[in-house]
Amino acid sequence: MQQQVAVITLGVAGLVRSKRFYVEGFGWTPVFENEEIVFYQMNGFVLGTWLQAGLEADMQRSGLARGGAFALAHNVGSEAEVRSVINRLAGFGGKVLRPGDAPPHGGFRGYVADPDDHAWEIAFNPAWPIDAEGHVTFGL
Fold this sequence. Notes:
- There is one protein chain.
- Helices cover 23% and strands 31% of the residues.
- The chain is built from 3 helices and 8 strands.
- It has helices spanning 15-25, 52-59, 79-91; strands spanning 7-12, 30-33, 37-41, 46-51, 72-75, 95-101, 108-113, 119-124.
- It has a 4-stranded mixed β-sheet. Strands 5-8-7-6 form a 4-stranded mixed β-sheet, with helices on one face.
- The two termini are 26 Å apart.
């Protein structure tokens, strides 16, 4: 089986506040939207934000509570960028979970939650190069 991710879909309570975070905060442009869902073309996959009730109905699962620890990540090119992106996202509805700092394993990172409490790691790791299309390559 091919090793890839095609779509990541996040359940959201409201599209307006979610779009403010992703469009104004990250600066991303939707490629499709209607009254229930917004899709963003990413570097190699699509990110969707779908009203929670619609997503639950589509999966035939209701009353989902977020379980387990997970975070999506947005890598940037410097420590200063980590701080800048976290501050920007906080200004557009995000909640800072952890300000930028240097973990013991190297690099620099911080965490911010979107308005629906989905955690995003904003990270810089000099061993993980980012190409012109935004693809990150694992490095040690």
